[in-house]
Amino acid sequence: MDPLAALRTPQDPDCDVFLTGSVFLDIIFTGLDSAPVIGTESWARGMGSSPGGVANMATALARLGLRTSLAAAFGDDHYGEYCRDALEQGEGIDLSLSRTVPGWHSPVTVSMAYDGERTMVSHGHEAPPPDGTGAVPDGPPRARAAVASLAPGRRAGWIAEAARGGARVFADVGWDESGVWDPDALVDLEHCEAFLPNAGEAMRYTRTDCPRAAARALAERVPIAVVTLGAEGSYAVDGRTGETAEMPGITVDALDPTGAGDVYVAGFVTGTLAGWPLADRLAFAGLTAALSVQEFGGSLSAPGWEEVAHWWRSRPEHPARYAFLEGLLGEELLGRADGPPAVPAGASVRRRAVPTIGFRHSA
What we know:
By secondary structure, the protein is α/β, with parallel strands linked by helices. Strand 13 and strand 14 form a beta hairpin. The longest helix has 15 residues. The protein is globular and about 50 Å long.
């Protein structure tokens, strides 16, 4: 399904969304009863491996039908080969701006999920810089949108360049290790269409004690501020119109929360580019994030339209808040009212995280 089909013209850029960053190999352990204890050995009841880091966002965007371009460095080890194949061949992500770095090993993250949360341990070295300057020496491609992770006190030249080229920039932010939490240090926020921090980050940057107050404060700095509340949902303010929207979370049996925030942003980007109302964007983003936590890993847990349609059809009562899905999905995905959901022509089973990075022979 192409969510932008009705909007496309011959003059459009080839790329819907551009992003750049580090690709990790993620190894995820689930089914732990508690955090590992010093001096003991813990056994997990489940394990999966998948591309991680910026691959989480890229895969989530591609699975929602957006033409996605990723600029990243890949190691020339087996991990790097696996990640590149999974993204390029498995997900159809354009890696023409990416590169393989001889002699550089892939970064690795081990994630341990328990009690609905996760603990992560990572190792890696920064990739040698490409020829030229900046993460994208030749500049970002022309795109409808770009997704960026802001770093306090650091300006990424490609963000301003993408915005000047007409891309709508959507940004999130990581934890401020300095503890300063100075909103003026987010220097690239001025180029952004939307800012999507979680509640803890938003309240620290705005010196507020309420996520809703934090969103209102952030909307004075960026056109659209979205504050995510984890399982409790999200709240958004459109600073240009004054419109607000709040969406409760969806209760699911969570297996692994890795990458759920990235999937949420991908869902919000999709709805924004498609021109949906603010509340529908929050609802869709929350749904895609909720579906993702029911699978292992970050990137390969991301749902596609088939999973969204299955969720809609399998609900004993259709929540009124999600009624907009029926018009979007159509009969091909939903099937007849008196029959099972149809399998779209050419549809394939989504890759999911597995305990190893690949078998020599297919089962």
